[in-house]
From TrEMBL:
<feature type="binding site">
    <location>
        <position position="26"/>
    </location>
    <ligand>
        <name>[4Fe-4S] cluster 1</name>
    </ligand>
</feature>
<feature type="binding site">
    <location>
        <begin position="257"/>
        <end position="259"/>
    </location>
    <ligand>
        <name>GTP</name>
    </ligand>
</feature>
<dbReference type="InterPro" id="IPR058240">
    <property type="entry name" value="rSAM_sf"/>
</dbReference>
<feature type="binding site">
    <location>
        <position position="67"/>
    </location>
    <ligand>
        <name>S-adenosyl-L-methionine</name>
    </ligand>
</feature>
<keyword id="KW-0408">Iron</keyword>
<feature type="binding site">
    <location>
        <position position="116"/>
    </location>
    <ligand>
        <name>S-adenosyl-L-methionine</name>
    </ligand>
</feature>
<dbReference type="InterPro" id="IPR013485">
    <property type="entry name" value="MoaA_arc"/>
</dbReference>
<dbReference type="Pfam" id="PF04055">
    <property type="entry name" value="Radical_SAM"/>
</dbReference>
<dbReference type="GO" id="GO:1904047">
    <property type="term" value="F:S-adenosyl-L-methionine binding"/>
</dbReference>
<feature type="binding site">
    <location>
        <position position="255"/>
    </location>
    <ligand>
        <name>[4Fe-4S] cluster 2</name>
    </ligand>
</feature>
<dbReference type="InterPro" id="IPR006638">
    <property type="entry name" value="Elp3/MiaA/NifB-like_rSAM"/>
</dbReference>
<comment type="pathway">
    <text>Cofactor biosynthesis; molybdopterin biosynthesis.</text>
</comment>
<keyword id="KW-0342">GTP-binding</keyword>
<dbReference type="InterPro" id="IPR040064">
    <property type="entry name" value="MoaA-like"/>
</dbReference>
<dbReference type="GO" id="GO:0061799">
    <property type="term" value="F:cyclic pyranopterin monophosphate synthase activity"/>
</dbReference>
<feature type="binding site">
    <location>
        <position position="92"/>
    </location>
    <ligand>
        <name>GTP</name>
    </ligand>
</feature>
<feature type="binding site">
    <location>
        <position position="22"/>
    </location>
    <ligand>
        <name>[4Fe-4S] cluster 1</name>
    </ligand>
</feature>
């Protein structure tokens, strides 16, 4: 069984922010659209119940995110509890704790990992993230490649900050056997006119055209109809994916995702405000599985493409 929204988009994908806490201070962070502070996180048992019910309704892929998911002490327990219900369980992390966690996470049931790596230059890395941890993250990536492949490297590209490093990152991906994911800077519509956004937004469309020229093969993913380019480098073929969400109607028309905030509220879209439906409180107030299923169905029907 799979649920469809009013725009014919299947809901097969769930992104759960398991915490708002983070050991980094990236200056561009969108906080997965959770712009309020909520101290009460879902417990591992609550996350398991959420995923169990979602899996009955067609969710096949779950992504753990945050904040920084690895700051939670009970991360391994969360992974262990939810893996039995999903085909593809992945996590997006800043990589700072991967060196020690990659192997245990794989053992607990995590299938793969995306690691944010916005620069290979220590000073630029620090300027972006606020911390001096590039070396630690590189070691973490090496470990992740052994246990959690395919490893994706998330590079959010920003004008005047790291846009000069795109092709070095393509080489790095080929060298390390990782997949490079180039991400356009994102913000809700009302923020696109701010000085901040104008200063740092770096459009990736021209980069896609160059990738297209260099690629020996191009594929398209179902989700977001994202393009994947296979590009020859001195180190072998690099796999490069482009995440270009801004003003992209095709991207939103092919969005299969639902989100859950760290305090257990469903969120229908990363860029929307006022689209929250409380799930955790219903669980805590003794809602039956049937009642939780109804909440889930209501959320799917609320989904709307953001750029349309
Ligand atoms: N607006 C928007 N941005 C997205 C969406 N999916 C991913 N992004 C952007 O891309 C960033 C990286 O996404 P990841 O957490 O690595 O996940 P992913 O690459 O989409 O997922 P997988 O391909 O399954 O690994 C997100 O934090 C967003 O900035 C989406 O559905 N909408
Ligand atoms: C919010 S973070 C959460 C997971 C983890 N802390 C990390 O940084 O990988 C998820 C991803 O969103 C990206 N990101 C954050 N703010 C963004 C923005 N304004 N535009 C585009 N990507 C952004 C980050 O670089 C990271 O790859
Ligand atoms: S590490 Fe992730 S959650 Fe933390 S500030 Fe950076 S982008 Fe945001
Ligand atoms: S509708 Fe568009 S902006 Fe919203 S989460 Fe989906 S792809 Fe992202």
């Amino acid at each position: 069984m799979v649920l469809y929204d009013r725009f014919g988009r299947p809901a097969t994908n769930l992104r759960i922010s398991i915490t708002q806490d983070c050991n980094y201070r990236c200056f561009f962070c969108h906080r997965e659209g959770q712009h309020f502070n909520a101290r009460l996180e879902m417990t591992p048992a609550e996350i398991e119940r959420l995923v169990r019910i979602a899996s009955r309704l067609g969710i096949r892929k779950v992504k753990l995110t945050g904040g920084e998911p690895t700051v939670r002490d009970d991360l391994l327990e969360i992974v262990e509890r939810i893996k039995p219900y999903v085909l593809d369980l992945s996590m997006t992390t800043n990589g700072s704790r991967l060196k020690e966690l990659a192997k245990p996470l794989a053992k607990a049931g995590l299938d793969r990992v995306n690691v944010s790596l916005h620069s290979l230059k220590p000073d630029v890395y620090k300027r972006i993230t606020g911390v001096d941890m590039l070396e630690t993250v590189l070691e973490g990536i090496e470990e992740a490649v052994k246990y959690l492949s395919p490893v994706k490297l998330n590079m959010t590209v920003m004008k005047g900050v790291n846009d000069g490093e795109i092709w070095d990152m393509v080489d790095f991906a080929a060298k390390t056997g990782t997949v490079l994911q180039l991400i356009e800077l994102e913000a809700p519509r009302e923020m696109t006119e701010t000085g901040f956004f104008r200063k740092y937004f770096y459009p990736l469309k021209p980069v896609e055209r160059e990738l297209e020229k260099r690629a020996v093969e191009t594929r398209e993913r179902r989700m977001h109809r994202r393009k994947k380019y296979f590009v020859p480098t001195d180190y072998g073929i690099a796999e490069v994916e482009v995440v270009r969400a801004m003003h992209n109607t095709v991207f939103c028309a092919n969005c299969t995702r639902l989100r859950v905030t760290s305090n257990g509220m469903f969120k229908t879209c990363l860029l929307r405000k006022n689209d929250l439906i409380d799930f955790a409180t219903a669980m805590r107030n003794g809602a039956s599985d049937g009642e939780l299923v109804e909440i889930f169905k209501k959320v799917v029907l609320m989904r709307e493409p953001y750029w349309k």
